[in-house]
């Protein structure tokens, strides 16, 4: 049965539309299970009914015509129970309902399985037998597997309006596809589906004799790609801050480095033609990165793939003619690259919808920097069928509407106009103090390091840098960067923000951030060798980094050092001993280094309960709520399947933060929060109430949070958090804060519209 199943699934996947997919299923099910009737009922949730979507064995004229109430009959029972109903004699069951319109004679054997996607029943697949028949376990498993397959096809069809047409409810569709918020805002426009410019994987090997000519053709193509990238960077320089532009530098660096270009040339010299040699090199690099299962490196893999395609396009000399873009273009793709984004004139770009990726992907980081709404990870999206369709992308909720109804469209047009009012309000807080109406100042710092250092002009808003993730420059190298190289990188950031403080966090790799040149294979990487644990086991790497940090601050003296993943006091003692050692050595070498404040991240539950012991050893704490949430709730922060359980406004997380703040305050040590929670307007209000002293966030979230701080008195925030802590459910806490923001006139910060 396995082979049959595979064959049917292939056929269904290749079907051009839902109607044909359903017909294939019902026909193959009849053949394979040997039944008299096979039918698919589709749920029309608005009318609370089933519509017969396809049949083999009943009258074809019944398709689209026969409608059953959603709560009646055996089919209704499958819907309610969300599990298979297997009856050897259907008519003897009290829920049985005879349907004359289908031309049914009473059938006895009945097996119905629900078609479920993301917890929602989309339809029911039913088989029937004239005789009394109990379907066996294998047959039931076969139908369950097919139903799971069908669920994907139905979701795709829902997005393109196929279902609405089949159900006779018009060509447009009101259901949203669900993805992840990538960049806030609402986009309305026409889909421009972007494909990889050249299909590198399809290139065959070919022996050549004139390898010099091949090498020179390849080098010309590389130079052309370098020109393109510089061109894009120039075009984007007016709208993107310097550190986001550095992404293009990183791509150029890859092209300039020895590995990609050098290895391809070696392969050409060994006799392969340029496209084949390029394919091999790119595939090898992509494989290495993808095997690391690390989100940062996965991004690198798609960058490398993109570079490969670009070079190939030039080699093939069939450069894509300058494309016409819609006035409001929503870029749609399986895996949109920063390069594809850069190709479109910014005035035409309304939004971005990507089938893969998350808010940590380069594309969404660029979208945030550009202020363009983006939805990522819409895995149910039928990308190939969306060109030219009207798309609404809601970057707050992560929803995408394809070919929406008039009503939905009108509503989003209204929300969009309110959005532009919001950005006017937000721009008003620039330059104003981050102070509550009752006079409490809450410094707002920036999280940087995602692409490179920072520039003072762009970030003149922040009070300094609260988190510089130093692992990022490490991730972009092909080997551990040396002391001088690190010194330059850190100096850039310290200079850009001086005299404001810059908190450099020591190397935090491991978990999902793996260095290609320092691979670690573990069953449980988030509970394994990561953060400070690696630094202490490799004191050479740690000491080099500390020396570079201390030297970078000479004359500026605005450095603060922060240690990640501290889970036990002895780790901190050893780290401080090493910092003292580096400091002493530098003094001996005649460097005018100054001892910086040292703090730790609180991101492991054990640290929450040892604050007093830790406080005696450090100058400050910064709560890493991204990790603290995942460790407290036992929910992987990167796993989409459990993303609904990953709630930073969980009572347990709030209690942990309250305990950290209370204990730290008793010893006079300040507490900051630098996880994503700090940049979430609703959560920032909770953190204010818990008495957190400062917040650190990405630049795009800073005006929103400042608006919250300036709108709520500290005393009010304290009362609110006391109420929140009485609630038991994270959703109730979120709703409570959303309501408070709504009532305070700040609803636009948490959803579209005012
Ligand atoms: C955190 O865990 O909250 C944090 C800021 O660190 P990272 O996201 O880099 O793990
Ligand atoms: Mg962390």
Structure, explained:
The structure is a single chain. With 754 residues, this protein is α/β, with parallel strands linked by helices. Among the domains are: 2-172, Beta-Lactamase, CATH 3.30.450; 177-194 and 322-403, Glucose Oxidase, domain 1, CATH 3.50.30; 200-316, Orthogonal Bundle (Enzyme I, Chain A, domain 2), CATH 1.10.274. Helices cover 45% and strands 15% of the residues. 49% of the residues are buried. The chain binds phosphoenolpyruvate (PEP) and magnesium ion. Residues 564, 603, 624, 626-627 line the site of magnesium ion (MG).
- Please state the average pLDDT score: 86
The appropriate CATH architecture of the domain at 2-172 is 2-Layer Sandwich
N- to C-terminal distance: 56 Å
* CATH topology description of the domain at 2-172: Beta-Lactamase
Give the helix proportion (percent range): 40-55%
Ligands present: phosphoenolpyruvate, magnesium ion
Beta percentage is: 5-15%
Sheet with the most strands: spatial strand order: 7-14-13-9-10-11-12-8
Put simply, the count of helices is: 26
User: What is the C-alpha radius of gyration, as a whole number of Å?
Assistant: 29 Å
**Helix/strand/pairing category:** alpha/beta
- Catalogue the unreliable spans: 318-322, 450-457
Largest sheet geometry:
8 strands, mixed
CATH class of the domain at 2-172: Alpha Beta
- Global geometry: globular
At the fourth CATH level, what is the homologous superfamily of the domain at 2-172? GAF domain
Number of strands: 22
